[in-house]
């Protein structure tokens, strides 16, 4: 037996229940993991709220964790009891102990802690996909990044500064504007009082940006399109404000439209290894940092969801188990 944070119906953060559940022995191709830390992602809130329909009830949400292998099922090669591991993008993480497909696991380097992995793994892989595979940024480029003070956004600010890219970030307050600028952003736009596209044109001398990275969706799509420069790329990787449907007719002439997913990296072993190497390297050198993550116990995950949905979080959110 173990404990898990489950919900029996979709709704607000108060639907979570801390309950005792059974975890069977691992089956073919599975391992059982004892979690030490979990990472929060917007998909967690989407599933809990019903924006992404759960496959069944009661539901255990959460997509990433880090911990220790407790048991190994048949047909599993390369993993052993006691191995330190992490995984991105495998629903069912909000539990002390869980079963997970062995193929989803990555080994934790000796110098990377479980808390660091929970804070940066999925988000770091996301930034790698955005900056390296989806847009191929060059030193000196100027980009626009929405929700720049969030879990992915703050890592993107630091990553952009490290590779010599000028990042303009949108945020909801002056406090967040100051924070992203101390974390590598070249400029901050407070979208609650400023016209994002107009400010981008002002900052870039009318040229627009080489790329826009938009995880917000419905509320930001118009400003994203208007901020693009000639041959610019709009990369969408989420819809936290609601889904949008964009036709080529709405895009300026000579621009590109792209949609990113970390799942694509995971299906291509060479790309995935390169992305993992980059994430661990940037964690070691301090580009990607876990020390500023907002930390909650898993039992108090509802408070973390409230922090996220009221747009008060800065940087990653981590759960201790």
Topology at a glance:
Elements: E1 2-7, E2 16-21, E3 30-39, H1 42-49, E4 64-72, E5 84-87, E6 97-101, E7 106-107, H2 114-133, E8 142-145, H3 151-162, E9 166-171, H4 174-182, E10 187-190, H5 196-203, E11 209-214, H6 221-227, E12 228-236, E13 256-259, H7 262-266, H8 269-284, E14 294-297, H9 301-309, E15 317-320
Parallel strand pairs: 8-9, 8-11, 9-10, 11-12, 12-13, 14-15
Antiparallel strand pairs: 1-2, 3-4, 3-6, 3-15, 4-5, 5-7
Can you characterise this structure?
The chain is of the alpha/beta class and 321 residues long. The chain folds into two domains: 2-120 and 280-320, Quinone Oxidoreductase, Chain A, domain 1; 135-259, NAD(P)-binding Rossmann-like Domain (Rossmann fold, 3-Layer(aba) Sandwich), CATH 3.40.50.720. It is 29% helix and 26% strand. It contains nine helices and 15 strands. The chain has helices spanning 42-49, 114-133, 151-162, 174-182, 196-203, 221-227, 262-266, 269-284, 301-309; strands at 2-7, 16-21, 30-39, 64-72, 84-87, 97-101, 106-107, 142-145, 166-171, 187-190, 209-214, 228-236, 256-259, 294-297, 317-320. Strands 3, 4, 5, 6, 7, 14 and 15 form a seven-stranded mixed sheet that branches. Helix 6 (221-227) links the parallel strand 11 and strand 12 (228-236). The two termini are 15 Å apart. The mean pLDDT is 94.
């Amino acid at each position: 037996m173990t404990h898990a944070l489950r919900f029996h119906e979709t709704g607000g953060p108060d639907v979570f229940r801390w309950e005792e559940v059974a975890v069977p022995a691992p089956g073919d191709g599975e391992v059982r993991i004892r979690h030490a830390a979990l990472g929060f992602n917007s998909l967690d809130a989407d599933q809990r709220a019903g924006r992404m329909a759960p496959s069944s009830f009661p539901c255990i949400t959460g997509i990433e964790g880090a911990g220790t292998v407790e048991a190994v099922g048949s047909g599993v090669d390369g993993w052993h009891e006691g191995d330190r591991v992490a995984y991105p993008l495998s629903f069912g993480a909000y539990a002390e102990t869980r079963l997970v497909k062995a193929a989803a696991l990555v080994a934790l380097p000796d110098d990377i802690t479980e808390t660091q992995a929970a804070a940066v793994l999925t988000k770091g892989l996301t930034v790698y996909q955005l900056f390296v595979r989806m847009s191929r940024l060059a030193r000196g480029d100027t980009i626009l990044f929405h929700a720049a003070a969030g879990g992915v956004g703050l890592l993107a600010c630091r990553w952009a500064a490290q590779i010599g890219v000028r990042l303009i970030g949108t945020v909801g307050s002056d406090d967040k504007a100051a924070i992203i600028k101390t974390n590598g952003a070249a400029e901050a736009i407070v979208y609650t009082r400023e016209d994002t596209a107009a400010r981008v044109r002002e900052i870039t001398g009318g040229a627009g940006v080489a790329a826009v990275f938009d995880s917000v969706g419905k509320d930001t799509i118009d400003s994203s399109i208007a901020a693009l420069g000639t041959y610019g790329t709009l990369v969408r990787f989420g819809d936290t404000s609601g889904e949008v449907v964009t036709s080529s007719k709405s895009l300026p002439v000579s621009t590109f439209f792209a949609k990113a997913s970390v799942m694509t990296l995971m299906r291509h072993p060479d790309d995935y290894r390169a992305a993992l190497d980059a994430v661990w390297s940037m964690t070691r050198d301090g580009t990607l940092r876990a020390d500023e993550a907002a930390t909650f116990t898993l039992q108090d995950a509802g408070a973390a969801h409230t922090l996220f949905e009221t747009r008060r979080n800065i940087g990653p959110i981590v759960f201790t188990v």
